[in-house]
């Protein structure tokens, strides 16, 4: 995303400061004052750009989802086969750059807010719908539609579960283990199909 205005840059700084505080303290303990301090600003500046804490959380989640979407899209453009498309989606959701404890803590904190925050819940639904659509695009050339639907749901549930474990502080779940579990699941449903990533 190209930022051309000072206000856009300031909003991005505040969104990233909010994520940093959530990574450290969780969403419930994140306040506008703490975000302002993290960003080197005042609470008034935060309220100038965001209506309230929920608005700030929503915009932070939008940015995180947009970053992941863009990463997946770039990988999908380079994929040459349906298995490569599927594995590009998996790797971008569980890869070393994103599947890290601080990110897991922030993600889990935001998910915990979703039942009480309709806008956050809607963003989560959009995220899951996009992941399902991308997976179905990769799986329908490989499986009957009902089996593709089942595998897409199972694989996305595995990814969600691994992120929950990461967010809860389970240090045994590394990105290498997460990718291996996903690879085993895909191999069980698609025997003989290679899911090792090409060098993108």
From TrEMBL:
One of its GO terms (biological process) is negative regulation of DNA-templated transcription. Pathway: Amine and polyamine biosynthesis; betaine biosynthesis via choline pathway [regulation]. It comes from the Bacteria. Residues 31-50 bind DNA. Residues 8-68 form the HTH tetR-type domain. Keywords: DNA-binding, Repressor, Transcription, Transcription regulation. Pfam families: TetR_C_6, TetR_N. SUPFAM superfamilies: Homeodomain-like, Tetracyclin repressor-like, C-terminal domain. GO terms for molecular function: DNA-binding transcription factor activity; transcription cis-regulatory region binding. Repressor involved in choline regulation of the bet genes. Repressor involved in the biosynthesis of the osmoprotectant glycine betaine. It represses transcription of the choline transporter BetT and the genes of BetAB involved in the synthesis of glycine betaine. This is HTH-type transcriptional regulator BetI. It comes from Tabrizicola oligotrophica. The lineage of its organism: Bacteria, Pseudomonadati, Pseudomonadota, Alphaproteobacteria, Rhodobacterales. The gene is betI.
């Amino acid at each position: 995303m190209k930022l051309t205005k000072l206000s856009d840059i300031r909003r991005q700084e505040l969104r990233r400061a909010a994520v940093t505080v959530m990574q450290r303290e969780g969403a419930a303990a994140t306040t506008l004052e703490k975000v302002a301090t993290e960003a080197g600003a005042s609470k008034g500046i935060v309220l100038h750009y965001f209506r309230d804490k929920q608005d700030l959380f929503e915009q932070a989640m939008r940015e995180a989802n947009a970053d992941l979407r863009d990463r997946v899209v770039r990988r999908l453009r380079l994929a040459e086969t349906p298995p490569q498309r599927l594995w590009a989606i998996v790797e971008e959701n569980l890869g070393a750059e994103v599947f890290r404890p601080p990110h897991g803590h922030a993600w889990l904190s935001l998910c915990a807010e979703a039942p009480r925050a309709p806008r956050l819940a809607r963003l989560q639904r959009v995220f899951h719908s996009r992941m399902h659509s991308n997976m179905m695009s990769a799986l329908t050339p490989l499986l009957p539609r009902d089996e593709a639907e089942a595998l897409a749901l199972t694989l996305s549930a595995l990814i969600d579960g691994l992120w929950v474990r990461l967010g809860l502080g389970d240090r045994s779940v590394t990105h290498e283990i997460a990718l291996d579990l996903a690879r085993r699941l895909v191999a069980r449903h698609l025997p003989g199909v290679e899911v090792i990533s090409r060098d993108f």
